[in-house]
TrEMBL record:
<comment type="similarity">
    <text>Belongs to the PhyH family.</text>
</comment>
<keyword id="KW-0479">Metal-binding</keyword>
<dbReference type="GO" id="GO:0046872">
    <property type="term" value="F:metal ion binding"/>
</dbReference>
<keyword id="KW-0408">Iron</keyword>
<dbReference type="Pfam" id="PF05721">
    <property type="entry name" value="PhyH"/>
</dbReference>
<dbReference type="InterPro" id="IPR008775">
    <property type="entry name" value="Phytyl_CoA_dOase-like"/>
</dbReference>
<protein>
    <recommendedName>
        <fullName>Phytanoyl-CoA dioxygenase</fullName>
    </recommendedName>
</protein>
Length: 312
């Protein structure tokens, strides 16, 4: 596998993201969609804690941080859309009442599909992705936080502008996201919005905050100020203007496309207001070589055997 071309690498470093159309074959996309539908239909709702996914960025809700979420790094677990629930509990069970069938109420499935599901493993831990990682300069790339993001019709929640290295911090930052469109993603159904060039230091690309487990044995998660390195190794400040509204590119990507996302680039997605779901599979790669340290306060912690190696 040859990996990325020099022009593609240059574009990624210039813009903070790179779209690779037709990265997955139609057979691979079908396999992942079939697996997704099986998972969504077969999980046990009666024993589920009904954990809802939110990072609390709107200042009106708590950060997700129960045990079901915090211990999901080496498991396949299901997280619900807040808008999928009624304001009143089910009168028979006393539990939160779903307004939709469970398969249409899930926000995402995570966080170790790449190691526990054979179809997802096949498109994650392979030489093709290893070659891409080599092109981006990784020495010992490790895969973590794999998830299927559903963006359900009419209720798929907005994700505010953020940087992936806020959530998967290494010292220094090294995260890159692999984001695969399993269904067409465009205007109206919550596609990605990328703020072009915002990963550069002078454009606000510094990692200023981090999403971590609360300290002192208190359950839950929170955002804290980052006191460590804020830019990847070798990345220098550039004299460029601050990001402007015209720097926001709303991506229109077809099923099978791969979007590579720099860990420092600002990106977001709007609520899915359409009648079309927007399934996407994503995982992240961090540097595992000497000279980079995965932080012990990150919300997601490695299993005993460590995060999955991309180079075998």
């Amino acid at each position: 596998m040859s990996g990325l071309t020099e022009a593609q690498v240059a574009s990624f470093h210039e813009n903070g993201y790179l779209v690779l159309p037709e990265y997955l074959s139609s057979t691979e996309v079908t396999s992942l969609l079939t697996e997704t539908n099986t998972l969504l239909n077969d999980f046990d709702l009666d024993t589920h804690p009904l954990t809802q996914f939110t990072t609390g960025d709107d200042d009106t809700t708590d950060h997700v941080g129960d045990d079901y979420f915090l211990n999901s790094g080496d498991k396949i677990r299901f997280f619900f859309e807040p808008d999928a629930f009624s304001q009143e509990p089910d009168p028979l069970t006393g539990r939160a009442a779903l307004l939709k069938p469970k398969n249409l109420a899930v926000n995402k499935i995570g966080h170790s599909l790449h190691s526990l599901s054979e179809p997802f493993k096949a498109v994650s831990l392979n030489e093709r992705n290893a070659a891409v990682a080599r092109s981006l300069g990784f020495e010992d790339p490790r895969v973590l936080q794999s998830m299927l993001i559903c963006k359900q019709p009419s209720i798929g929640g907005a994700v505010p502008s953020h940087q992936d290295s806020e959530f998967l911090y290494t010292d220094p930052p090294s995260a890159v996201g692999w984001w695969y469109a399993l269904q067409d993603a465009g205007h109206g159904n919550g596609t990605l919005g990328m703020i072009k060039g915002s990963h550069k230091g002078a454009k606000g690309g510094h990692i200023k905050r981090r999403f971590v487990r609360k300290s002192g044995g208190v359950p839950g998660t929170e955002f804290i100020q980052n006191e460590g390195p804020s830019l990847p190794k070798g990345m220098e400040e550039e004299k460029v203007s601050d990001p402007a509204e015209e720097d926001l590119e709303i991506l229109n990507v077809k099923a099978g496309s791969l979007v590579l996302i720099h860990g420092n680039v600002l990106h977001k997605s709007e609520k899915n207001t359409s009648d079309r779901s927007r399934y996407a599979y994503t995982f992240h790669v961090i540097e595992g070589a000497d000279g980079w340290k995965y932080d012990e306060r990150n919300w997601l912690q490695p299993p005993k055997e460590g995060f999955s190696k991309l180079f075998q």
